[in-house]
Amino acid sequence: MSEELILVGDKVLVEPDPEEAKSEGGLYLPQGIKEKEKVWSGRVVKVGPGYPVLDPSSLEEEPWLTQKSRAKYFPLQAQPQDKCIFLKEQAVEIRFNKKKYLILAQSAILLLIRESHSAKEDL
What is the mean pLDDT of the chain? Predict the structure, then answer.
């Protein structure tokens, strides 16, 4: 029996980038130096369904008269395979299948980098 991670609401599952052992100048950094940084980067693995949206027409009738409908969601901007820059202090670390992941709300993401499939350059 295999297990699957199911994210709820606006949650995003991120695989953090590996820690750099060297600085850009070639100096070896002490262990745990990345832990002190406030902003981390990683790759989006999976996203939740989005922000729940209330159907305004359901407010016009009494709650016991309306039929239960499936929840509707406003989708998230983050997508799997996006590279992201996020606030580390808002992330929760988990281990799943012996791999380290971070769960964070989409609001903790500062920047998304997505590979463009179009021929024209944006920058």
Answer: 82
